[in-house]
Amino acid sequence: MAVCIGFIGKENSPLFLRCINPSQELQFHYIMHTCIDFVEEKIIQSNKSGSDVRELYLGLLYSSEEVKAYGFVTNTKVKIVIIIDSTNSLLRDNEIRAIFRKLHNAYTELVCNPFYTPGDPITAKSFSILVDELLASSSSSS
Amino acid sequence: MCRMSSKTQPVITYSGDTQLFSTLESATSQGLPQETVEWKRSYGRPPRAVTLSASFQPFKIDNDVSKELSKGLKKLSGSQVLHTYWVECPDVDTYKASVRENIQAWFTQVKQVECSDWLIILVETSDSKKSNKILPRTTVLDKVKNDFGGKTTERCLSVVDPVKGETKSSESWQTFLFRLRQALMAAFSRTLSKFEETVRTQRERRNELNWNFCNYFLLQEELAFAFEMLGLYDEALVQYDELDALFTQFVLNSAVGDAPDWLLAFQATPNNWSGVCLNPKTPFNLELRQKIQDHNMSVIDFRNYLFARQSALLLISSKPAEVARRCLSYVQSYMYELKLLNVSTVDGAIPTWILLTCLQVLSTCQSHVGASGASMESFALLWNMAKDKLYELGRKCGLLPGASVGSAELHCVVTLSSGITDFGDESAVRPTPVDKLKEALSSSQAFTRHYLELSELAMGTFKHCGRLRSARLIGRDLSRFYLQLDQPQKSVSFLLDLLRGYQEENWPLLKIDTHIELAEVFLKIGDRVRFIEASANIAAYTGLNSETRMKYFNYLLQSAQDFDTSLDEPCSVLCDSTVSANVEVISHFPGPVNCSEVTVTVKAVKSAATDGSKLSKSGGKKSVTDKPIEPVTSEKPNSYVSARTKNPPSNDYIPIKEQLHLKQDGSLSSVALVCPSAQQLLGRKVSHGLLPTELSVTKEEFTHKLSVQDVTILPGVNKLTLTMKADHEGTYVVSQFVASSQKLEFIQSINCPKLSLTVVEVMPSVMVIKSRDDLLAGTEQEVELVIRTGSTAFQNEKTLRLCSSRGLTIHLPNTDTTFQREVDLVLRPIAAFETVTFPLKIMADLGFTSSKEATFVEHKLSVHCPWLSKTPPLLDLPLNVYAPFTVQYKLHTAYTKKFVNIHVQGLTPSSRAFEFQNPNVLLPDSTYKNSALSKLEWKNLNGSSQSLKISQEQPANYLWELCGAPVQYEMPLLKAEFSVDYRLDGSVDWKKFSFNFDITDYATLFTVRSRVEPVKGNDFLRAGSLCHMTLTVSDVLQQASSAALMYEVLADQALWAVCGRTAGVFSMEGSSKHSVTLDVMPLVCGFLPLPAVRLSRYIPAEQKPKDGNRKPDLAAASLPRLEPFSAGQVYNWSKAQQVHVLAAPSNNGPTSLDTSTS
Q: What's the chief localization of this chain (chain A) (predicted)?
């Protein structure tokens, strides 16, 4: 069950973070920030392999007793991180990929909005509604 | 290596001449694994080269075994895969007599056993071979092959006995071994396939009631053993991984459905949590394996065994990094499993187990990998996990700093220790993880040491592999720990590091969280300034809940109240003020000392870039303890007093110089700050060196001192107040205490650079402040003259004289003076740091508005300030005054009529528009005295008494017709004046604005008319076809000028093509009209503007121009040249006319000419 979804900007500043339980927000901020380490490492690794078409999905970034973090990085170096509950073994890789795809689409749509400056914290209502729905659906499906 | 290899090796039985075999057994079993043999495998798996070894057993029929075998292979290890018969038979006769029967009997028995692979080995001596060479197929071997071989004659081998040591025998022996390997491989492969089949069958039955995972585990593990024996470690690992996955699946399923009975056994409470044993010397934990066999194990034991086996295989394959990586997920999934299985454990057992496992894995892996970078990431995570778990244990056992140990905590320690056992490995590196943990649990100090060590390792490893953020996060834990340890100073650097990271990447929430922690730390340290800073940051962050913000806001306000007493900042005083210091002197003399003067000297500190005048001195309160030693009774007036300040010395001023590095071309390359005495300052300070020794005290030269006269210092504490007049710039620190008593001077160095004083002297300043809008010329503008007194008060009345630059006048409101260029201002006495404002009205001339370029004029207000040291004491204040509008004059012509146009363009925004009325044009009276001009008069074309508003958006135009001008070639210059009344919109007074301009060439001399017509036969103009252009020049004056004229047709080359000459010279002599016809061709269709025609005066070579004032240079005089007419002299009728051109003809349709004037 996905408990938190976060967007991190090109310069590694947080763009958007939404979690199911708001009291855990601070904790998730810490996890998200640490995840940048792992994302950077994975990007360097994939650059080394030298394939032209870069896989945007980075897979499992980090796991602890409580949570697991999965990563995704767009071509514009915007990072998307999904944090799921460790006890959930039902959310498969494919489903996580699907969520990332939806999030990526939502972000693309957001960037198309001329009133949004890329790199600014995201405050768009439609965007947060969409993320909330994704969070709710991924947690109810499990 | 102490492996279970003897048990897992396949068995080869031997029969026949056992005595003979016993001589060969060792050679055979050693020879077998010396070379690899290719293993071709079923199910399309790739062939592998493997090393095969075997053990030998005498052949005997075991009925039980054979029965079991008929049901399927239950056991792989120790199973007989190949049967051999060894015989030495010198000749055929012997063979026929006895050997054949013996072989026959054995052969029959072998056939009964299921694994019926066999070999008959005939051991020969070389001479026996030779003797039978004569007849083919008559050797013993041939006979054997004939009798038993059937289709597989290669099962019958002969070998020359190597024991006999003959040269030929070695080759024969190698061939034999090769054949034996092949046979053994084939046989073993066959057995293995059968066994795999059994395993598969067992697995299929896993949902049956009486199926038990332990049994199955042992069964499949045999496969792993077999692969390991063959050296196929990866294949062996696959077996364990399959078992791992199978078990995990069972556990997961049990969470949602019913757990099978066998799984319940795993829920037993574990009583040992020593972690995984990875001792490379004992890859099999027999004790644990026995437990599996007995179905008597906890899940912790099972997992330990499984992980140990997996790790052992990975380590053999030199993949220690993989071990570390797996360990992480292993530990995590394991904890999850415990939850699912509802295993009850002793409190703290799980963290202990995790901690020990992490440490075990780390120590094992590092010994293998030698700390190579590849696996650092996993190591770092393991260190981190171990650190966290140790902390958890510390919390449970009351070992955290500041925690108290009660009976519950002690009990916890005892219980946990009981479940930790060493693995009995004497050769392990001491201290083992178990030793470490036991030590850490023994005392709070030991725990602290171990925790810090683990944190250090985790942090270092993270940094090493570039995970700075993770490393910093550990810093956060560490800072908390240090806070608990009551060492908040150590927390600061970690937190600041974190803060820097979050600030760089702009994580506001984390930043504030760090600020909150920092605030707590600073509060503990007592660093009020930074505490306030952090509090302000927290209180100002809107993302935080309001209680927290309010809490810190209140801290902030509270601290701000206590601020002035708590800060030990150097204080600043004004120049020329009196400074006093309270000095506490303790005299240890038994009697009073009369001092003529007690002084505290202050020493100037050279500060970089002092722009004001500064003087410093000790401020605030100062305590000095004097510990006099017996005064030296000599002629020398210097007695020595050693002393000590109560405040410890800190923050020494470091002398720093600025260094500019210049490039060769003199431009700046770099700037550096250099400390010339760095070595001295960075040198290690020995603590006793801080106190001056007796001999080192010398009286310093000084010019500034705080002093008090004629005091008596009594034994004990004396409180003195010393004063000084601060009159010099510079920063000063306290230097020495000197008490002069008659001819004795008691000197005491005061080593407290914090006691310093800055004296500030701020020069008075004068400024002109205008309102938000630009100053406009031509109208009254209000400005303010602001005088700041700075640090010096103006004691007496002073007079300021203001002088303005030319074109600017000043007026002081509330006085009866008018606008003038010089104004005197009287200043009453003003206190220091006061500001006096004088309103001023200024008025700038409008004279510059006729020039187009200058839209503003830089005026200057000079203030005569008596306090300035320079001569003359003038202070120039720049004032930019902008033009409110610009005026342009233009002459327009309509045939012979002349119009004068005055264009007024506003430059101000519409909010400050100007209003205009009563425009007028005048010629001076002297003009009318010229008889030719006496009839001139102006015809006003403007609306009478109309007022216009002018701004940036709204220009104004005035128009007059000039009537009655004489018609002649040479027209006298007219000097005209335009005048108008204006005022700033909203003001009352009208002001007059006048503008002078010259009117020249105000007679029309020639007119030009041009026409374009289709050639005859065509009715229309068409693009691409020729047509005629007729120019007609008329002499308006009809005074038959003899001057030659030149016309030029200037056609837009994109629209018109002119055929033939575009220019020509003609003379008007004799006629008033002249016509020229040219051929032109329109290039495009549409409404085309006619080609422009320019008419100029043509001056042939070597002819003086008619204008006598002109003095052409000689070269020009010898050449013909053109003199253009000015705008008013030629009138073009056809200006801006257009003709309609049709598209190029597609057929011979009619053409039309259409001329229209736009």
A: cytoplasm
